Write the structure tokens for this entry.
Amino acid sequence: MRRFDRWFVVIGLVVATGCIGFLSSRHAWTFDWTRGARASLAPESVAVLEKLRGPVDVVGYISPTGPLREQIAAVMERYVREKNDLRLSFVDPDLDPAASRQLGISGDGALLVRYAGREERVESPINERNLSNALERLARGGERIVAFVTGDGERQADGHANADLGTFMSQVERRGIRAVPLNFSQTRGVPEHTDLVVLASPVAPLPAASVAALVDYVRGGGNVLWLTEPDNLDLGTGPLADVLGIRVLPGVLVDGQGSTLNVNDPRIVVLGDYPFHAITRAFRDTTLFPQVSALAQVSAHEWAVVPFLRSGERSWTAFGGIDNDKPSTVAFHPEAGELKGPLDFGFALNRLSPSPAKSEQRAVVIGDGDFLSNTYVGNGGNRALGERILDWLLGDDVLVDLPSRGAPDRVISLSQDGLNLVTFGFLVALPLLLLGLGGGIAWRRRRR
């Protein structure tokens, strides 16, 4: 009987092992025993995933060389644990560089997150904060209405000319942003439910009624993006500049910094470093700005004004023209009133909204509109910067505020006396202890 009992025990163990193996191949249990659940998603990210009622596709345009794919897969594994219909795939951007450029993929690559026919792009750094913010924007859904002022030679949102913005707007439309024309000769004011008004580099003077409608819109709490140009000082936009507390300085910004990147036209301002702002947080791409106007802030104004685009120390406002077909004779002439850099040419403004339906009002003024035009939007990080500007103006810059969850024991605080004690213990006391133990063991063995 004992022999049979032993066989039953062995057979039972084999069957139990097989059942455990079968179940483990079909079901996964993960336990996070780290302090503060640092190896799992934050509750804020889990709440975002619960809003997404359908499959989510994440496509990583990442080169197979290097560790970035493995790092992204490790981050995405936390999301898959909470949402099993979230799928991750990778594409080598070097196999189809034209398609990657069309999607705006550059530098170290990016992730495209697609949900319910919309998409968001996540660029470096690819972490939980940026991923959850992209998912939150997709979960919010709904179209954002961006009205482009027309009728006075402005850049067209759907135009295909070199100076128009059709390429840029066709890309952001997939993110739920819809561009509509706004002609003040056909309507008295900005229509209700407009999320943003864009005044993109008019070339003809604006009628007084159009300027008054824009001023009323801003005073009422509306968000606005104003793209100015050099020498566009007589277009009747003075009242708009007054209500925003901004001045467009005369002259064209010239900067010799672009010569280091083989940009021979000094009127093209090349940036790789940016003042800190929510728009430029962790943004490291190089951007090109042709034909830039410097801007100045009016003191004692109700807006909080933060510069986020600034020229280099070798820049200044040139009043004379430049002929690229002749040897360059451009030089700084302070006696003529030219201003030496660094000079700001991009301002982000915010204040408490005058409208009771909104908590904050935002505006952006940039001394150049060419950087988003069909000709230049594909250069460096121009498109990415434009998307960041729209996100901030539409209130989508920070949607998920994740708390810091770093390991609590990464830093050891020791006084000098404590450090001396630890040093003595490891370098003197511990070797002497080991030596004494070894000698004692050897002495005992010899006595035997």
